[in-house]
Design a protein that fits this description.
Elements (H helix, E strand, L loop, with lengths): L3 E4 L2 E4 L2 E2 H8 L3 E5 H13 L6 E6 L6 H9 L3 E4 L2 H9 L7 E3 L6 H9 L4 E4 L2 H14 L3 E8 L21 E2 L3 H9 L4 E7 L10 H19 L6 E3 L16 H12 L5 E4 L3 H4 L3 E13 L2 E6 L8 H5 L5 E3 L9 E6 L8 E8 L7 E4 L21 E5 L2 E6 L4 H6 L11
Parallel strand pairs: 4-20, 5-6, 5-13, 6-7, 7-8, 8-9, 9-10, 9-11, 11-12, 12-13, 15-17
Antiparallel strand pairs: 1-2, 2-3, 4-14, 14-15, 14-19, 16-19, 17-18, 20-21
Helix pairs in contact: 5-6, 8-9
Length: 421
């Protein structure tokens, strides 16, 4: 359930016509369905009924405070990768003890802040990070709950830029090093070593890589326990894919069945960290066609959104379905390049996409834009950050306003000595 469908010829977000929202807030803008967000969370969390499992939303997918707060209200914890995300999660109502601090490059300052804020868990990704955390925690008179991210050398069969569990990827500790690292951790002041973590990548549309990675982790748990180590929690990360084009991603219950099969009798607390799966299909990017033009035998729809608003097509060559906000009348289609106004050839949303007849002023909805959309946006070309809107049934709210030029330009400071030479 995406929360976006045609009714009487108009694309609606929950019960509100998208065109009416556009008339109020202007284009481009992001629009999220609260109904779809709730459904995605309850479907995912419900799949793990009966297990000792905590759902920690991966904030990096969409860090808007309203989105985090919605999930927190449903009982979610948070998976964060920076001090900023940690503070966002706390501000949105996530209890500190339900926050997992992941990421390969935590600074000592970030560690100190997280310890001071009583972050519930640190996911350790390297031996130098372990040493740094022990030093910081001991110096503060605190103990950090630590789990160790294993690199299981499993290919997730996803885009190479979001595959994280292969040997040679920057993430995690080599599988063969974990036993030594765990033993070292148990001898350090300031560290409470209590488990393992694994995350092999994002946008997975097959379950067998999960099973392979989980089975490796289960074997490692047995090995560590046999050596006398305490291990009472496993962080299984996220990674379940969504529909961008014609994918058929696994349903949460099938994923949960693998978790039960592999870990159900191991007496461990589990953490799951979905991100894209909860927010991806619950958001669209709405944009207006500024010009239609012909060049070199091709048709171009130049829209007012750009790669700085949604970078996935440029960065990952990603496909997003694109639909007119007004339901097309008839089956006529012709190839169109849908491009933005940024001064880059790569500022493009679709190449030779079969589209119904288009013209200037038409609104388009770029689908499955709720994850890694607004959160990755920038002000390249001095373009303003665009609004985010959340719809809940018959109501809507602007949950991030459009930036203004005074704010954008005011971020810079000109030194007194410029122009005085």
């Amino acid at each position: 359930m995406t929360g976006f469908s045609y009714r009487d010829g108009a694309l609606c977000a929950d019960n509100l016509p998208v065109a009416e929202i556009a008339a109020t807030v202007g284009t481009p803008f992001y629009c999220y369905s609260a109904t779809a967000l709730r459904r995605a969370y309850t479907d995912f969390a419900g799949a793990f009924d009966g297990l000792d499992a905590e759902i920690c939303y991966a904030v990096k997918a969409n860090s808007n405070q309203a989105v985090i707060a919605l999930f927190a209200g449903l009982g979610a914890g948070a998976d964060v990768v920076s001090e900023g995300e940690l503070r966002r999660a706390l501000a949105a109502g996530v209890p500190a003890e339900k926050i997992v601090y992941s990421g390969v490059g935590k600074s000592r300052g970030e560690m100190a802040s997280a310890l001071d804020l009583e972050c519930g868990q640190f996911n350790i990704e390297s031996e130098p990070e372990l040493a740094a955390l022990a030093n910081v925690a001991a110096g503060m008179g605190k103990t950090a709950r630590a789990v160790f991210r294993v690199n299981p050398d499993v290919d997730a069969d996803t885009h190479h830029k979001i595959s994280t569990g292969r040997a040679g990827d920057k993430f995690g500790i080599e599988f063969d090093r974990i036993a030594n690292v765990y033993a070292r951790a148990n001898a350090l002041n300031g560290i409470n070593a209590c488990g393992l973590a694994v995350h092999i990548g994002s946008q997975l549309t097959r379950l067998d890589p999960f099973r392979e990675a989980f089975q490796k982790i289960a074997g490692l748990v047995r090995e560590l326990r046999a050596e006398g180590h305490v291990l009472d929690r496993l962080d299984l990360g996220g990674g379940l894919g969504i529909v961008y084009r014609d994918e058929v991603p696994p349903v949460p219950t099938d994923y949960a069945d693998i978790v039960r099969d592999v870990f159900g009798d191991m007496d461990v607390a589990l953490m799951l960290e979905p991100g894209r799966r909860l927010v991806g299909e619950a958001g669209i990017l709405v944009t207006e066609i500024v010009y239609m033009k012909e060049s070199g035998g091709r048709s171009f729809a130049v829209v007012d959104a750009a790669m700085n608003d949604l970078i996935r097509p440029t960065l990952y060559e990603a496909w997003h379905d694109i639909d007119p906000v007004a339901e097309p009348d008839g089956d006529a289609r012709s190839p169109v390049d849908i491009v933005g106004p940024v001064c880059e050839t790569g500022d493009i949303f679709a190449v030779q996409r079969d589209m119904p007849p288009l013209q200037s002023g038409y609104l388009l909805a770029i689908r499955s834009a709720g994850a890694y959309g607004a959160v990755m946006s920038s002000t390249y070309n001095s373009r303003l950050l665009i609004p985010e809107v959340m719809v809940n049934g018959d109501h809507s709210a602007v949950i991030r306003p459009r930036q203004d030029y005074d704010t954008l330009i005011g971020l810079d400071t000109v030194p007194d000595w410029i122009g005085n030479d």
